[in-house]
Design a protein that fits this description.
The protein has 119 residues and is mainly beta. Helices cover 0% and strands 58% of the residues.
């Protein structure tokens, strides 16, 4: 079983920066894709960024050029560097990991971390 623990959320003024971390622990052999999602009040959860085990990345158009996803495979940790934050970035941010186990792939979610951007 794999667990994800996020950290790094908080309150920041518009234009500021935050760095989120998400560490995986448990019975890990390897982790495939990792991703960050976010969910604002009254809205559906949306994909923010993904990163493959080899380091290939994809971003939502709304965060391109401002957010950077990275990972440290030796620590089973994924990061989200968020710069030039806007009030519309306010949301609960969740990380997700996809991993192989018992001949199939599984996914696990973190508990979420609140990011609030004030204007």
């Amino acid at each position: 079983q794999v667990q994800l623990v996020e950290s790094g959320g908080g309150l920041v003024q518009a234009g500021g920066s935050l760095r989120l971390s998400c560490a995986a622990s448990g019975s890990i052999v390897s982790i495939n894709d990792m991703a960050w999602y976010r969910q604002a009040p009254g809205k559906q959860r949306e994909l923010v960024a993904t990163i493959s085990s080899g380091g290939s990345t994809n971003y939502a158009d709304s965060v391109k050029g401002r957010f950077t996803i990275s990972r440290d495979n030796t620590k089973n940790t994924v990061y989200l560097q968020m710069n030039s934050l806007k009030p519309e970035d306010t949301a609960v941010y969740y990380c997700k990991a996809v991993y192989p186990r018992l001949g199939t792939t599984w996914q696990v979610w973190g508990q979420g971390t609140q990011v609030t951007v004030s204007s």
